[in-house]
Amino acid sequence: MSETLSAEPTANRRGEVVIEPREPGTATILIKGVRSRRYLTWFTILTIATTAIWGGMSILLANHVQMLEFGNWFTGNDANLNLQELTALKQQIDDGTATATAEQVRQLAILAQFDAARAQSLSIIASVGVVLTMLVQPLVGVASDRTRSRWGRRTPWILFGTVVGAVLLVGLRFAPTVAMLAVIWMLAQAVINAGLGPLNATVADRMPENRRGTASALGGFGNFFGGVLGGVSAGALFAFLGLDMYFVFAAFLAFAGVMFVLFAREDSSRALEVPKFDWNTFFVGFTIALRSRNFRWVWVARILLTFGYAVSTALSLYMLQSYIRPALGVVEATQTSAMLALAGVPFLIVAVLIAGKLSDKLQKRRSFVIFSSFLMALSMLIPIISPTLPGLFLQAIVGGIAFGTYLPVDQALFIDVLPDEKAAGRDLGVAALGSNLGQALGPILAGTVVAVTGSYLGVWVAAFVLVILAAVVIFPLKGVK
């Protein structure tokens, strides 16, 4: 890497156009050429691999929890009961078309306890890891801003998050209790996100301002497509591999992380000038971005939208088994949940690619975020009106369009409102904290609603209200189109 500092693009013999770093130890900005293409390619692949974990775990953990809780509640002769048949009986009784015997009343009482237990257990498991991540990710963001190594500032953290995260995913396969499952998943989420935050910061490090929307669009595509790929793979292969699917996700994550490090190599940060560390400055630094009015409103909006989205998706496998009419069996529900995720993919891909590039062209972010938030809220009404499988498919399609529009533009909007680009890792870590907070609160609220009301209807109502509020709080932004 050249030590000459320049703010003007330069071209080398291979036709690559770059802007050399303005400060020693920072990354070269990639305008055009092989390095730029390699970075964008492996950035997208690693984003897919990381978010495939979240999509796949939504199915694997739900099934894992269900297996463990079924063994806790249905014992002895009840161990052979068919959940689908018992749920169908419950729906018939609710509709007044059947009458339960004394034995069926007993079994239905166990079903109600089991349903509440699995919803609460899954919500706790989905939330505890996010809570630890909320503490770890901003700290890692600051640390990555200050890291000096021959591999650069971000790369050591990305490698740690992917390789160690993969090892912990393997450990999930052997968790014998809900408590052990919660502990290992908590650690896995924290470690994987310790690599994801610095990965997202590389966009601010390596991309020029007029290409950040495009790069964020690829990241947004990777986010949703990865989630879909993970969900589809888990749903399609669960009947054959069962919980051994944990191994598949672990291998993909480790592979993508190593390939990013090798083929999207970061410049050395050994010459980075790092100010003397001060704990008081360190903790106060997390509040700097939130003192910015625009950053604060975008942050609150992200919390609300991810909160609402997490509420609607936290118990999706159980909704297929207990909410829609007619209810599905375990295997059919597992496979169908993957198809639900796949239904919105074509629409999401189009939305991601159009939204990212169009927002760059028009230099508008706020209007895209508001539109996508309202559209997502509209999708939440569909299962309320039609608690059927077709209703859930329609919600997935409309929600895919909304999320595909939201993801790239919201990330670009955060970068646009950063109060200090030199501290992008720290402040984008704070931004990610908003996502994590929403993801942590969503499952808790969903599980609580089901446990208190005994129904999944309130889950969709809560999701609708939260996403509407996410759109409303974007309006106060100033100086942002």
Element-level helix/strand string: EEEHHHHHHHHHHHHHHHH
Spatial strand sequence of the major β-sheet: 1-2-3
Computed Rg: 23 Å
Nearest-integer average pLDDT: 84
CATH topology: Growth Hormone, Chain: A
The N- and C-terminal alpha carbons lie at a distance of 37 Å
Work out the count of structural domains.
1
Q: Any idea what the CATH architecture is?
A: Up-down Bundle
* Uncertain parts: 1-6
Strand content: under 5%
CATH classification, class level = Mainly Alpha
Shape: globular
What's the story with the biggest beta sheet? Answer: 3 strands, antiparallel
The CATH superfamily name is MFS general substrate transporter like domains
The count of β-strands is 3
| Helicity level | over 70%
What structural category arises from helix and sheet content?
mainly alpha
**How many helical stretches?**
16
List the helices and strands and how they pair.
Layout: E1 10-11, E2 17-19, E3 29-32, H1 34-73, H2 83-95, H3 102-146, H4 155-172, H5 178-206, H6 212-241, H7 245-263, H8 279-291, H9 293-313, H10 316-322, H11 330-343, H12 345-362, H13 366-385, H14 389-416, H15 424-453, H16 457-472
Antiparallel strand pairs: 1-2, 2-3
Helix pairs in contact: 1-3, 1-5, 1-6, 1-7, 3-5, 3-15, 4-5, 4-7, 5-15, 6-11, 6-12, 6-14, 9-15, 9-16, 10-11, 11-14, 12-14, 13-14, 13-16
Transmembrane segments: 39-62, 124-143, 155-172, 178-196, 217-240, 246-264, 297-318, 338-356, 368-386, 392-409, 430-451, 457-477
Domain Major facilitator superfamily (MFS) profile: 64-481
Membrane topology: Multi-pass membrane protein
